[in-house]
C-alpha cells in the first residue's frame, strides 16, 4: 500500500466516494472530504477486506482445480529458474515446454487425479497430506506446457517469485503452492485497489466481478485474476484520461497514459482477444494529436503485434493434430471473412451452446466438473439483468458518447476475437462449429461493456441506496453459492 501513499493526487479517490466493492462501502462514509491519510486508510481497508474474503474462498479450493492451472504454474516454475521462453523437446519442433522440478511435476500430477468429472474427489485429504511432506527435488525434467507459449512471461511475475522463494526456502509442495497463491491473489487485489482508487466502478461492473466464476478464478493462481485486475486498471486509466478534470494536468496525464499503454501491452500479450484495446490509443490520438504520441502508439503496436506473431509462429501445440497450421487457418478466415462469420453464426444458433456459455460465465467451476446449482445460476443471472436494466435507465447516454461507443466496440470485438482465436488454434478446418469456448472467457469483454454504462465524466460515483443493497445482496448470495458448492465437492 506504500505505492498508493506516494502516488500523485490523480491516483487517489475523488471526494471520498470510492469504496471498490459494495461491501467496503458499508465501512466508509460517503459525505465528507477525506484527508490524504484517510484516503490511504480506506484503500488499505478495501485491500485487506477483499484479501480476507478471497483467502477464505481459496481455503475451499484444492490446488490445480482451475482449468490449465497446472500448465500455468509449471510455466512459472520454468521462469523462476531462468527459462523465459518455452523450448523444443526434440529440437525438431517449435517451442512446447521446458524443465520443471520433478517433485513439483509429481505434485501437479497427483492433484489432477481429483480434476474433471471422472476425478475422485475423496482423494483430496490424502493428497494434501502427502503434499505437505513432499519437498523440492532440485532435479528437473521436461514438461509440455505448449498452451502457455502464447503468453508473455511478465504475466507470470508473481507466480515465478512465489515458486522461486519457495524453492530456496525448501518449503513443502503444499506450502509452496499456498505461498504462490497468496502472492498472486495479493498482486491482483493490489491492482484492483489502485484501479478503484483512480476511478470508482459502477454497480454493474461490481456484480460481474462478484459472480462465483470471477471469485473462483481470482482465488486461484492462474493468470485470470491478474488479467481481470489489469482490465479494471486499464479502464480506470482510460476513463480518467477522458475526463475533463484531467486535461489541465499535463504531467499526470502523461503518467497515466504511459501506464495505460503498459496495461494494454501486458493484457494483449496475455489475452490475444484483447487486441481490441489497441483502439483506445487511437481514440486518444484523435482527441489530442501529437507526433510524440503517434510514435509511442506505433511502438506499442509494434511490440504487441511482434510478440503475438512470434508466439504464434514458434509455439508447437501437439494437443491438436491438424493438416493445416494455425497461421494457414488464420489467413483463410481473414481472406474469407464470410466463412468465419458463417461458422460463428452456426455456433451461436445452437441452444445448448448458448446455455453452456451462460452457466459457465456464472459458475461451472473447476475443470467443468463443479457447477453451482441451476437455481443459483438463474437467480444470479436475473440479478445481473435487473442491475443492467437499472443502470441503463439511469445512464445519461449523450454524455461522453464517443467514449461509450469505444467501450462497446472494444468489448464486442473482443468477444468475437475469442471465437476467432479458438477457431484458429483449437478447431479443425473446416469446422461445423467452434468448440472450446467457455463462458469465463467473456468476463473481460463484459467488463468493457459494463464500463460504457453510468458516469463517464465524473471520477467519483455516488451509489444510490438501491445499488448498494443490490450489490451487497448479490455478493453475499454469490459467495454463499460458491462456498456451498465447493464444500460439497471437495469436502474441505
Automatic annotation (TrEMBL):
Q: Name one Pfam family in it.
A: DUF2142
Q: At the top level of its lineage, which domain of life is listed?
A: Bacteria
Q: Which UniProt keywords apply?
A: Membrane, Transmembrane, Transmembrane helix
The transmembrane residues are 40-58, 179-198, 218-239, 259-285, 297-316, 376-393, 405-426, 438-456, 468-490
What protein name is recorded for this chain? DUF2142 domain-containing protein
Amino acid at each position: 500500500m506504500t505505492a498508493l501513499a506516494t502516488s500523485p493526487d490523480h491516483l487517489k479517490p475523488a471526494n471520498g466516494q470510492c469504496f471498490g466493492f459494495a461491501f467496503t462501502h458499508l465501512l466508509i462514509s460517503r459525505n465528507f472530504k477525506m484527508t490524504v491519510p484517510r484516503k490511504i486508510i480506506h484503500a488499505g481497508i478495501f485491500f485487506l477486506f477483499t484479501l480476507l474474503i478471497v483467502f477464505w474462498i481459496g481455503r475451499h479450493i484444492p490446488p490445480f482445480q482451475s482449468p490449465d492451472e497446472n500448465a500455468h504454474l509449471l510455466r512459472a516454475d520454468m521462469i523462476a529458474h531462468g527459462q523465459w521462453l518455452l523450448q523444443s523437446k526434440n529440437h525438431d519442433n517449435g517451442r512446447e515446454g521446458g524443465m520443471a522440478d520433478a517433485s513439483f511435476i509429481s505434485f501437479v500430477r497427483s492433484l489432477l487425479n481429483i480434476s474433471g468429472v471422472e476425478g475422485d474427489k475423496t482423494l483430496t485429504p490424502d493428497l494434501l497430506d502427502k503434499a505437505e511432506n513432499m519437498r523440492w527435488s532440485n532435479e528437473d525434467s521436461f514438461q509440455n506446457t505448449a498452451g502457455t507459449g502464447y503468453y508473455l512471461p511478465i504475466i507470470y511475475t508473481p507466480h515465478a517469485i512465489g515458486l522461486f522463494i519457495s524453492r530456496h526456502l525448501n518449503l513443502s509442495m503444499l506450502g509452496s503452492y499456498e505461498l504462490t497463491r497468496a502472492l498472486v491473489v495479493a498482486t491482483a487485489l493490489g491492482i484492483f485497489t489502485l484501479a478503484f482508487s483512480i476511478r470508482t466502478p459502477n454497480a454493474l461492473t461490481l456484480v460481474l466481478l462478484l459472480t462465483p466464476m470471477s471469485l473462483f478464478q481470482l482465488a486461484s493462481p492462474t493468470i485470470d485474476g491478474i488479467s481481470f485486475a489489469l482490465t479494471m486498471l486499464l479502464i480506470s486509466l482510460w476513463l480518467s484520461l477522458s475526463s475533463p478534470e484531467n486535461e489541465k494536468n499535463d504531467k499526470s496525464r502523461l503518467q497515466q497514459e504511459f501506464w495505460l499503454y503498459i496495461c494494454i501491452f501486458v493484457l494483449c500479450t496475455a489475452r490475444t482477444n484483447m487486441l481490441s484495446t489497441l483502439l483506445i490509443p487511437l481514440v486518444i490520438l484523435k482527441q489530442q494529436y501529437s507526433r510524440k504520441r503517434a510514435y509511442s502508439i506505433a511502438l506499442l503496436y509494434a511490440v504487441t503485434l511482434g510478440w503475438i506473431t512470434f508466439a504464434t509462429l514458434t509455439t508447437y501445440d501437439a494437443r491438436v493434430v491438424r493438416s493445416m497450421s494455425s497461421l494457414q487457418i488464420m489467413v483463410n478466415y481473414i481472406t474469407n471473412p464470410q466463412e468465419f462469420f458463417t461458422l460463428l453464426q452456426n455456433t451461436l444458433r445452437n441452444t445448448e451452446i448458448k446455455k453452456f456459455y451462460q452457466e459457465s460465465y456464472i459458475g461451472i467451476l473447476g475443470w467443468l466438473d463443479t457447477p453451482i446449482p441451476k437455481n443459483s445460476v438463474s437467480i444470479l443471472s436475473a440479478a445481473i439483468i435487473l442491475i443492467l436494466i437499472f443502470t441503463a435507465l439511469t445512464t445519461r447516454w449523450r454524455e461522453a458518447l464517443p467514449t461509450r461507443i469505444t467501450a462497446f466496440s472494444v468489448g464486442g470485438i473482443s468477444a468475437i476475437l475469442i471465437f476467432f482465436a479458438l477457431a484458429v488454434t483449437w478447431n479443425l478446418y473446416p469446422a461445423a462449429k467452434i468448440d472450446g469456448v467457455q463462458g469465463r472467457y467473456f468476463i473481460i469483454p463484459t467488463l468493457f461493456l459494463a464500463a460504457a454504462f453510468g458516469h463517464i465524466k465524473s471520477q467519483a460515483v455516488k451509489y444510490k441506496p438501491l445499488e448498494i443493497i443490490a450489490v451487497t445482496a448479490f455478493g453475499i448470495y454469490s459467495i454463499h453459492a460458491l462456498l456451498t458448492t465447493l464444500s460439497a465437492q471437495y469436502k474441505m
